[in-house]
Amino acid sequence: MTPSFDLSGRVALVTGANTGLGQAVAVGLAAAGADIVAVGRSAPTETGEAVTALGRRFTAVTADLGSIAPIPAIIEQAGPVDILVNNAGIIRRNDSLDFSEDDWDAVMDTNLKSAFFLAQAVARTWVAANRGGKIINICSMLSFQGGIRVPSYTASKSGLAGLTKLLACEWAGKGINVNGIAPGYFATNNTEALRADETRNRDILARIPAGRWGDPGDLSGAAVFLASDAAAYVHGTILPVDGGWLAR
After folding, report:
1. Which of 37, 84, 98, 180 is within CB 3.0–4.6 Å of 238 for a Cys-Cys bond?
2. Distance between CA atoms of 34 and 58, rounded to whole angstroms?
């Protein structure tokens, strides 16, 4: 069988699609043929322009996934979807000795709790319709490693990796593929502080075999693969896209 990466006729719901990695994933899926529903706190104007320029339909849903309260409205406004990309995420930095409960809860609620309950809500629609679908969770290298000064982020992304595997075990038999992508060090607003720190920037680049920070567009190919029929028998995997960081 010839593998197909064509997403024509499918609808992808992408959270946090207004900038950075989420925007790149949304545009990449659109380039492969998918229509896009973008969920975020701010208007995804630039993402919408890029998607419609590719001839795909674009729907914007304004929601703050810092809580699960907006999820029913998101499901209603999105309508039937075929692909869910849980990308929305935040990061808070501080020494673990000084880390606050507020920063812990904010990150865990956005990165882990909302991701689970949105996946649950979408999967319920698929099961009710007796059909399958694709869920892609955007994990992190810190799903595998400890990191520095980001305790809630590391905990949330480690939890998301575990959740990816659990949901794959439960839902693979229902025709639902649940997988993850673990981005390495990408040039986004989340890493601006690291790139601005001359010492940290130098040390990070020295460790990356590819010798550069990732461009958000580097992530789109992995997303298209996991969203496509080519990945029909791929369940519970977390695909690093990291310039070789974890290999070193």
Report:
1. 180
2. 10
Helices 71-78 & 114-128, crossing angle to 10 degrees? 40
Query: Is residue 233 situated within a structural domain?
Result: yes
Domain of 162? 11-241
Give the number of domains in the chain: 1
Q: Is residue 247 part of a domain?
A: no
- Answer for the pair 38, 63: CB distance below 8 angstroms, yes or no: no
**Residues assigned a catalytic role:** 153
For the stretch 42-73, pLDDT in tens is 999 999 999 999 999 999 999 999 999 999 99
